[in-house]
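User: Predict the complex with zinc ion.
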Amino acid sequence: MGRLFALLLLPILLFGGTVIPFKWNNGESFLTFLERKKLPLSVYYNLDKEDQKLTEDIPYSANCQMVVNSKKIIQQILIPVNDELQLQIYLTPKKRYELQVVPIVSEEHTETLFIPIKTIPYDDILKATGSRNLAAEFVKMFKGKVDFRRGIRPDDTIVMVYTQKYRLGKPFSMPEVHGAMVELNGKRHSMYLHTDGRYYDEKGAQFEKFIFKIPIRNPRITSRFTKRRWHPVLHRYRAHVGVDFGARPGTPILATGDGRVTFAGYSRGYGNTLKIKHSNGFISLYAHQKSFRNGIRSGTKVKQGEVIGYVGSTGLSSGPHLHFGMYIGGTPIDPLTVMKKKTEGFTGKERKAFLAIRDKMDRIFTSALKTKPVRKPYFDFHNTYYVDIDTFKPKPF
Ligand SMILES: [Zn+2]
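Assistant: Here is the predicted structure with zinc ion placed in the model:
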């Protein structure tokens, strides 16, 4: 088994080898990639079904790394499948290539940030943090609640509480915002992240507009979304970047929202698969279909609720079901967090839980208005580190 490998950002010499960063070719299949790199296809065929399916979830333009030795022989390739798991192809001492799924090591920091508004919130947050994701998340949270185009005064401020992942000292992946507050003309507006993954205001009302609908009638969920799960029996890491709905073969599949079909075809893992591009950068995916509805092809415009195909069991599927995925900019998200939901406000236990979150967050906001915390720079400890493949822990180079 291979032992120590390197992960880094720039080509660098290592054990007489070189690390080469590269981006995943958009739309390239894993098998084509192996052929192009002259790697044995057994790397793929030796995997079990679940890991084979994972290779179809490599995001567009994923940041990958390859280690080659002085004879240009590939020692290792790392390909992220989401922000928690990566595929590691490596050369064993017996000169065989193998693949395993390993975690991506990152640090997480929860930060509270105080930002005086000088121009508009998006620009001020971007300037303070360098994070477009964080700025966009803030705007999304307050959409429909606060109109920032009107009357911003010099004393107006923002407080955000969020968790950000860092890898090699740099932020990566989407931040999770726990709460945000904006003080406009002396009036405070706040939004809070509830345990259901959605944002609510002080009164527990929802302002986010969820434009998407569950793609099947009488949905029965058989498998939920997870980016990384340790399988205790198989002793390996798993991911399921979608929601499975069990249904009889032939059950109609409905478009989750208005959009345009960007892919209608067959893939080994997902079988008959449709992808629909929606506004705001969302892409939905419908896999294992028996067949597509007549007339549906790449380029077809569809309306929300329109039948696009029928449930089947094509591809690497263990029985008839719809695998439904949602992506933003190539990153898988839990589809259930962006589906339409009735919001009648909280009652009982859920109300108690929400109020506890709200009150805790309000105390953080109040204290931040006094202490005015700014973003801490994180120490970029090394451009290079090893990943021990037994412990997955980075070690300084
Ligand atoms: Zn699935």
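The radius of gyration is 23 Å.
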